[in-house]
Specification:
Strand order of the largest sheet: 4-5-6
Shape: globular
Structural class: alpha+beta
Helix content: 10-25%
Amino acid sequence: MSCGSDHKTGSCVCDILKEISDAQSDVLSDCTTSCEQSISDLLGGNDPSNNGLDTVPVILYCKGNCKPFKGFGVPSDDLGDATSSFYFRVKTVDDDCCAVLELLREPNDHDDDPKSPVDQDTSHLEVTGICITVDLNCFCHVTCLPAISAL
């Protein structure tokens, strides 16, 4: 069972990530979600190109255990070192609620396997080039951080 039938896709997590993805592609959207401020800041009013913001970092929470989701991946330039993160940039969301998420990390964070979101510094999150594909129907909650410049 998902968050309810009041949502376009039947999944509130899918709907909000789809909205963030659209906003990050400079597509204006009517937002009435808890992430409204982050999306509004990202869009920067009438001229999003002037604010320097390009990402709404998100934390996802798994259904059932309600714990933050940690994604794992391997950078293409260093196939020996896997890394993980609790923070993501939404790349795409399709109509079936399948999303491509990019791991966000602090550039000088050498802890490749943080144990909780509070173990990661969020002051200068950057894209990693590490993307994962997830089924958004597996999540029950999304937390948006303030919009940042991560690219």
